[in-house]
Amino acid sequence: QVQLEESGGGLVQAGDSLRLSCSVSRGTFNRAAMGWFRQAPGKEREFVASITWNGDNIYYVDAVKGRFRISRDNAKNTVYLQMDSLKPEDTAVYYCAADHSDPRLLRTGGRVVSGYDQWGQGTQVTVSS
Predict the structure, then answer these.
(1) Residue 81 DSSP SS3
(2) What is the DSSP string of 13-24?
(3) How far apart are CA 114 and CA 51, in angstroms?
(4) Residue 17: HSE in the Cβ half-sphere, 13 Å Cα cutoff
(5) Contacts with 78 (C-beta within 8 Å, 6 or more apart), sequence order
(6) What is the pLDDT, as a whole number, of residue 26?
(7) pLDDT tens digits for 61-95?
(8) What is the model's pLDDT at position 28?
């Protein structure tokens, strides 16, 4: 069974940076699109960023464009989310997810929760003002 494990979360101050990692065991990581989502208390899980199986196409939610960067290393079965200039509104649990059915993200650009078939347990990111 495919397992996804996030790491790199923590408590930081506004303006700081964090890099989240998501390692994928087993499965076919290099044939899956990957996405990052986040969920703040009392809110629905929302799309943050996605990347196609080969990294050729990347998508971001407007709120993080220019501050966050998604990347992947297929040799290490790992996807990353570099987060710079963090803001208090970025506070949330961050989840990585894998989409094996649409590796080129042709349907929705990876923006829809239901498009993913595997999820990690999440890592908390807290940004203080």
Answers:
(1) strand
(2) ETT--EEEEEEE
(3) 16
(4) 9
(5) 21, 22, 23, 24, 72
(6) 73
(7) 999 999 999 999 999 999 999 999 999 999 999 99
(8) 82
Contact 127, 13 (CB under 8 A): yes
φ, ψ dihedrals at 5, nearest 5°: -135, 120
| Longest pairwise C-alpha distance within the chain | 40
| Residue 29 β-bridge partners | none
Q: What's the rounded Cα separation, in Å, for the pair 98 and 18?
A: 21
**Rounded Cα gap, residues 126 and 88, in angstroms:** 7
Residue 51 is predicted with a pLDDT of 98
Residue 2 is predicted with a pLDDT of 74
Residues in the chain, how many?
A: 129
Phi-psi sector, 61: left (phi>0), alpha (psi -120 to 50), beta: beta
Residue type (1 letter), 72? R
The tokens describing 77, both together, are 């079965």
Mean pLDDT of the chain: 95
Residues forming a β-bridge with 13:
128
**4, 99 Cβ separation under 8 angstroms:** no
User: What pLDDT, on a 0 to 100 scale, did the predictor assign at position 1?
Assistant: 73
